[in-house]
Amino acid sequence: MSTLFALKEKLATVGAELEKVSAELMDKAANAAVPIEEVQELKDKKANLDTRFNLIKEQHDKVEAEQRAQLQKSKITTAKTDEAKLVAAKAEFIRAKVEGREMSPEAREVLADVAEPPLRAIPGSGNTSTGQHLLPTTQDKDLVHEPFVSNQLRGRIGMSAIKGLELPKIAYELDDGDDDFISDEDVANEIKLTGAKIEFGRNKFKVKVRISDTVLHGTDLDLVTYVENAMRSALAAKEKKEAFAEGQSVNMDSFYQEDGSDYLIEAVTGATLYEAITNALADLHEDFRENAQVCMRYADYVTMLKELSNQAVPLYGRQPEEIIGAPVFFCDAASVADGNGGKAGLPIIGDFRNYHINYDPDTIYDSDKDINSGDYIWALTAWFDCKFKLRSAFRLAEVVPAID
Q: Do the beta carbons of residue 335 and residue 346 sit within 8 Å?
């Protein structure tokens, strides 16, 4: 069997001859003075070269794919650490998808061995060929760089990847026959109105990553880092978009969801932002207030500090929790339209464990190529849902200036 190098030489030789004959055929075909027999002869010669070129190319592509697979196999088997094996297996998975070939058994075995608990897993299916374990969230161990975009809600809200997930709104009950053990009237009313169980649906979405040829054929670590960062960033952006979506929604719950002219989450007012936030904290039931956090824009926090301190420097060095009375995390998405084409901050206060995002495990990975740019398109199709366990666990802090 010819070596890959020899096949490349043959392919180049026949290709050059084919290009030469094709050009000569076009010239003579356009010249009426050239006998048609001579044109036909060149046409037959071109057809012969086409056949030879395609045969050599078919063998070349086959040998190249085999050698690439063998190279990936050796990278996996000779890797000195589990992390290196995992990176090599992920890189082979990506390249195999893009090139339309099968993964090696070694890569499949490595990917099948890195299953993670549902609460830390990015969605995937039980079939490793669909990429179940391509995107584990232990990014500090696998990746060189952090994702380009992050979702500040992660780590604070519930996350899972369970097919057909159903959750009770209250995770416990008392066995003394007392039906009034729920001391928060808002919670009791919410359960009466909406039921005691949450059912998560399947809302389909797609995200795409562009991979240049140089990245695809670069180092395994660069390829895996780039694809994972881009995919995680896309998922983070999608999660935030839905969680902070303003207006009415029929599919997924958001913090700024509306019912008519009112928000579904109760808005607590104050003459200043500080007063509105502290009023909202005080309005929460103690079961939620104990674990409450404040989600707000950093710009709103700085403005609030200026109002509170009147430029007093000591206040700027204090932790937000010392000032507000609850932990604070910042997210620019914590805002709504102000009616003038801009955005106004509307902080969210509550126990964020009562907001949950569930991914359906049936994630699908596909690939294609953009013939215009030459980039490879890595596409993720997934299904997820965002639901409140209890809306009563949250309040919105709305500023309503006092009327003099």
A: yes
CB of 7 closer than 8 Å to CB of 54 = no
pLDDT in tens, 197-236: 889 999 998 888 888 888 888 888 888 888 888 888 888 8
Nearest CA among 262, 269, 264, 248 for reference residue 347: 269
Give the integer Cα–Cα distance in Å for 223 and 209. Answer: 12
Alpha-carbon distances, residue 213 vs 78, 175, 367, 374, 375 (angstroms): 26, 63, 13, 7, 6
Determine which helix (DSSP H) or strand (DSSP E) holds 203, and give its type and residue range. Answer: strand 203-211
Same domain, residue pair 353 and 239: yes
Residue 115 counted as domain residue? no
List all residues 6 or more positions away from 327 whose beta carbon is below 8 Å from its beta carbon.
Answer: 293, 294, 320, 321
Answer yes or no: do 89 and 131 share one domain.
no
* pTM of the predicted model as reported, rounded to 2 decimal places: 0.67
Contacts of 333 (CB under 8 A, 6+ apart): 240, 241, 243, 244
Cα angle value 158/161/162 (rounded, 5°): 105
Q: Domain residues for 102?
A: 4-109
3-state secondary structure of 279: helix
Say yes or no: 104 and 236 in one domain: no
Helix axes 105-112, 36-78, angle to 10 degrees: 40
Q: What DSSP string describes 327-362?
A: -EEE-TTSEEE-SSSSEEE--EEE-GGGEEEEE-S-
